[in-house]
Amino acid sequence: MATTQLSLAAFLLVSCPLEAWSAMNLRMFRDPKSSRSKDPAGWAGTTCQTKATACKYDVQALAYENVLKSEDGEDRCLLTKYFEGICDGTYLDLGAVDGVHHSNTYAMYKLLGWTGVNVEIDPTNFERLIVNRPNDIANVNVAVCSESDGVHYAPSPDNIALGGIWEFSSEANREEKWPGVTEYHTIPTKCTPLQSVLDASVSAKGKKYYFDFASIDIEGSEISALYGIDYDRISFGLILLEKNGNDDTNRQVHELLSSKGYDEVTQPCGGQNLMYVNRSFHRIYAKLRNQNFQLRGSS
Questions:
Q1: Which fold has domain 53-144+201-297?
Q2: Name one Pfam family in it (predicted).
């Protein structure tokens, strides 16, 4: 009898189907505006309450499918140690680039049914992002920070992932990542508080929302973006962010997140990162982990 071989991609898309909607694409790069957006069922009024489900997959098989795109193996680490056997989660990806290049969330999106909000400052990257992530909750072209202000975007001449905000970058960082770029070459734009972006993209205004995972890599602007969140309304399961070259900035990150209910992980995923987990992480995902153990036992 002939046997039909179902590819991993097909199997996972059946087990963890993508949402039926298309992503809302917000171009807030020049002038932020209010927008109506979809309100995923079950999100409103929740805090530290995941909508993820348990599922069965093999991380090595994900590598075979070529969907692990992180620069330093962060996605493999996350899916092995923290979100193993978890599908249909939600993420916030700051510095999403084109949604594929060095992405910490691409495997989650492509085969595991996760969806989220992608924020990318570079207009060219953003055009690719909306093509690569059509089924995410929202793709937003904007600079994010702690408060509304005028800033300058510096595109990298050598790497599509290294553009950033001039004002938030040190002299050494500018010379390393933007050689030959001066303020004259930058693009004036509006910097918007991250909370305002979330209010527009997932109808978060006045409500509590939970993201299972946040990936933050915005070339020195990480601390400013974190200060722009209302932690009484927005919470995360795990936050992964690029380590700053300035130790004082990293201490500020630690003090802020520690005060908001997150503990630092001493061995983060990726050598150039900081990682913080919700103090209730194990409680939040205990049921899913038990269900996943049962799924594995049934194979």
A1: Rossmann fold (3.40.50)
A2: Methyltransf_21
